């Protein structure tokens, strides 16, 4: 009984981290564009992310369960993998760095798998790695195209009250959609390893959604400012272009069962929009800090999980 409780706590902790670190990916652009208050934005992301996890989180959950370490993980391995990834993301959140929770958890799972000498699916790892590289580039191109088209159209339509409110409405819709996509992808990422313990995916989705909402409510403000304005200055149209592009990509890969980085997707989209607006509007120092975090996250989380599992195994 106690091993199950420990694993559930570690899974909830990872879910909390996702809400704390990745809520900014969903609402940072909306808050940065001053379309919605932070409090209302947090409620929006909490509701739609929970729905996304419940309705479409199963595919990613199965991948994280036995798609990477095909031989499965023992209870202790699940606990160490989740705790290692969660601790790394907590540290990044405190430093206001929007690192990838997906990369941290996959690094943790891989580190424990290597420590166990388990069967690692190199094909799945290669597929995930390719998506991690391609996704932000594709999203950036999509966002720049949507921004250019939206700006062109809005400049040529009537400027009555309805059309003036349209950009803000589109931004709120895209914020809800990317929150749903976040839940569909990241609830499965957080709770997937727990399927090794035979726990129902439905209950895991509920726990993950609630934990994610708690993280967004209690700590999500740390990263929101970085995404909202720390990379480039955002207005409602540029924020909408970034959010809708990232949401489409994340949702697509969730259906395929591939855990992707919401952080990479949103930052790639924001950079794409910033380049259309002018290279000088993109704050390169912030980009370098974020990219460094992307590279370090899976490596350090995996190394920590490997060492931690070996050490705990010797003690127990």
Name the descriptors.
single chain; about 325 residues; mainly alpha; 12 helices
What order do the helices and strands come in, and which of them pair?
Elements: H1 2-32, H2 38-56, H3 58-67, H4 75-94, H5 101-116, H6 122-154, H7 161-191, H8 201-219, H9 221-230, H10 236-255, H11 262-277, H12 284-315
Helix pairs in contact: 1-2, 1-4, 1-7, 1-8, 1-9, 1-10, 2-7, 2-8, 3-7, 4-5, 4-12, 5-12, 6-10, 6-11, 7-8, 7-10, 10-11
- Got a strand count? 0
Coarse shape: elongated
Radius of gyration: 19 Å
Distance between the termini: 17 Å
What is the string of helix and strand elements? HHHHHHHHHHHH
Extract low-pLDDT stretches. Answer: none
Count the DSSP helices. 12
What is the residue-mean pLDDT, rounded to a whole number?
82
What is the count of distinct domains? 1
Helix content: over 70%
What does the model show?
This protein is mainly α and 316 residues long. It has one domain (2-315). It is built from twelve helices and no strands. α1 packs parallel to α4 and α1 runs antiparallel to α7 (161-191). The longest helix is centred in the middle third of the chain and has 33 residues, at 122-154. The two termini are 17 Å apart.
Summarize this structure briefly.
The chain has 316 residues and is mainly α. It contains twelve helices and no strands. α2 runs antiparallel to α8 (201-219) and α4 (75-94) runs antiparallel to α5 (101-116).
